[in-house]
Write a sequence for this structure.
């Protein structure tokens, strides 16, 4: 159940920039944006951090803005 709620919240937050852009300007060429995804792994000293010495990390960054000079 917690995963479903988390998934719904993430989908909601990811849809906000598209709603804001589509409502503010009718020409999509006046906007620029980036979407970046990253994956990684952390390896910590086993003696200090067992049993969580191997940690997976992931993330998404989103950036939308009007083009310069608009």
């Amino acid at each position: 159940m917690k995963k479903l709620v988390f998934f719904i919240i993430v989908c909601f937050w990811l849809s906000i920039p598209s709603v804001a852009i589509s409502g503010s300007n009718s020409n999509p060429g006046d906007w620029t944006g980036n979407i970046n995804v990253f994956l990684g792994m952390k390896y910590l000293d086993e003696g200090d951090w067992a049993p969580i010495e191997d940690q997976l990390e992931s993330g998404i960054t989103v950036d939308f803005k009007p083009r310069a000079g608009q």
Remarks:
- The first helix runs from residue 2 to 24.
